[in-house]
């Protein structure tokens, strides 16, 4: 391995260490507790080293969000590749988002608060745009195939996001919701989404 390759690998490791430390602080102390100084102290780097990789704390938060969306996209694509039925595709997206949001609560909240509220989504969060398109692609396969587009597709997309995020938020505040109840709610939501698109005979 040449000198250039070693430098690039070392740089990538430091960057990864910074992001890992930042996420740990967010999970254990909250986003408000995050600072460049605290990150530096936790991984025993000088503060200027952190600034060599990220302009400020906000840049670190943005990168964490991008990585979160990238992981969510990866999970959806992996589980969706063998699915052909419209309902199966909707189930993959719904449960992938639900599982990610419940297992990575702090990261999901960060992704939602920063990613959704971003002014220039296409530039700052291309991964969010990809995720949104995956959701819309899944919804567009619902029967009648090829008919769900335009305003109707946007309406279904907003219904999907609102429902899943709403259930996630309810679980954050109401700690005693039974897992079986969550599964029932998700199933009923999917049933209703599929049923609402069927053409009456």
Automatic annotation (TrEMBL):
Give the InterPro entries listed for this entry: Homeodomain-like_sf, HTH-type_Tx_Regulator, HTH_TetR, Tet_transcr_reg_TetR-rel_C_sf
* Domain annotation HTH tetR-type: ranges: 12-72
Keywords per UniProt: DNA-binding
The Gene Ontology terms for molecular function here are: DNA binding
On whether Transferase is a keyword of this UniProt record, the answer is no
Q: Which residues bind DNA?
A: 35-54
Tagged with keyword DNA-binding = yes
Query: What is the name attached to this protein's record?
Result: TetR/AcrR family transcriptional regulator
